[in-house]
Amino acid sequence: MLDEVPDALILRDSNGNILFANRQAEILFEYSQSELLSISFRQLIPSLQDSSQLPADSISLLQLPPRENNSELAGITKSGRNITVEVCSRKLPGSNTPLTLLSIRDVSNRKLFEESTRVNQERFRLLVESVQDYAIYLLDPQGNVLSWNTGAERIKGYSSKEIVGKHFSLFYPQEALEQDWPAQELKQAIAQGRFEDEGWRLRKDGSRFWANVVITSLFEEDGSLKGFAKVTRDLTERKKHEQTIQEKNEELEKALRAKDHFLATMSHELRTPLNAILGFTGTLLMRLPGPLTQDQEKQLRTVQTSAKHLLSLINDLLDLAKVESGKIELASEWLVCRELLQEIHRSVQLMADVKKIQLDLIVSPPELLIRADRRALHQILLNLISNAIKFTESGRVVVEVHRRNVDSRVEIEFRISDSGIGIALEDQSKLFRAFTQLDHGRSGKIEGTGLGLYFSNKLAILLGGRIQVQSTSGRGSTFTLILPQE
């Protein structure tokens, strides 16, 4: 029965001789039963000189002893390992020689844990006291300050002597006190275990700072309220930064509204006179008012060409402004690819004929459909095909469109290939930048704003697609528009 007791039990006489040891004593001190019976008890616990040092009458042979008043002593095992043990004793009556029964429990791990806990608590206390970026302090259940760290002194301006014992509502502005914020915050911390908020708080000198506040409720083991831990961080600079950003955003929104108004006005005020100029020059060139001399016709065609160029420039700028401001509205519909390309073909045929460039359309299958915004897709393809013709002196431009499956996705691919001047590899990354025109080494200046590809790429992204380019200088280029399909 005694071998089943979880503590080591040793029976000794007044001279320290061991008369009995249970199995747990063998395990604890690393001796066999016979070895224990041949040594003195003082060899196991050298610091114990007299059993009168130990709590008496605390051992029952059939029951674990109560250990509230047990002595902690240093013991040593057979291998020389130092251990800490709790020892209590009881003198056994009915014997001519005084006998003492000792109950011994190994508490080495507990002592190590207690020491580790003590060290960690001391480190934490020193850490909290030294933190300067956070005000960390404790409150009693009524909200009075119990402790005050260096960060609290720096942020709030009070020394520990000035503030300990004062109520924490001292840190709140008048409008917060009128709404009973301090009491409400503690109530929420008790109910939820934690409360967090941001708002204005007061320093000792009366100045305000924007604070992030976290209050954590602390409870005793029996569930009664012990108090609160409060952490306050000064976020005034962040608040100022946010206010600055908000003001800048408001200014930006105001500027955007002004820009939208300007664009709407410019759209009307610039396009109207240009359309009138184009209309009148067209009428004159048709000789409806009367015959023209050769010189008059030449000058009128110059006016007409310049007006068309200016109108195109204005349209590009206005379209660009709409894209960048998110004002373009897209409406998807089913389109017949062949019909759309034939429409564009008619628009650019004259340009191709003038340069004697062959323009081929290949649609596979011929009845291929695509779901997209008609105006946006038309604009992208028109820009890509026009560029191909513009930068090709002779040869051909081929426009191919087909459907392909990629990883369970369906895509429609438009490929525009030319036999033109090509684009050097180092210049290809510049193609989709706004107002960028590459130097192709041509003697004549290429007309345009440098917005065509930039605008086309923006539209492609809005359609959920992308534009890719493959080109070799002097050997032509291939631009590919890839659009996903549902």
Compile the SSE list and pairings.
Blueprint: E1 8-13, E2 18-21, H1 23-29, H2 33-36, H3 41-44, E3 71-76, E4 82-92, E5 99-106, H4 108-130, E6 134-139, H5 150-156, H6 160-163, H7 174-178, H8 181-192, E7 194-202, E8 208-219, E9 225-234, H9 236-285, H10 294-324, E10 332-336, H11 337-354, E11 357-364, E12 369-373, H12 374-390, E13 395-406, E14 409-418, H13 452-462, E15 466-471, E16 477-485
Parallel strand pairs: 11-13
Antiparallel strand pairs: 1-2, 1-5, 3-4, 4-5, 6-9, 7-8, 8-9, 10-12, 13-14, 14-16, 15-16
Helix pairs in contact: 9-10, 10-13, 11-12, 12-13
GO molecular function, one term: ATP binding
Coiled coil: 238-265
Domain Histidine kinase: 265-486
- CATH H-tier superfamily of the largest domain: Histidine kinase-like ATPase, C-terminal domain
- CATH architecture classification of the largest domain: 2-Layer Sandwich
Say what the CATH topology of the largest domain is.
Heat Shock Protein 90
Q: What is the count of structural domains? A: 4
**What is the averaged pLDDT score?**
84
Question: Using DSSP, what is the number of strands?
Answer: 16
- What would you call the quaternary organization? single chain
| CATH class placement of the largest domain | Alpha Beta
Helical content band: 25-40%
Helices and strands, in N-to-C order?
EEHHHEEEHEHHHHEEEHHEHEEHEEHEE
Shape: elongated
Distance between the termini: 81 Å
User: What amount of the residues lies in strands?
Assistant: 25-35%
Biggest sheet overview: 5 strands, antiparallel
Structure annotation, total helices: 13
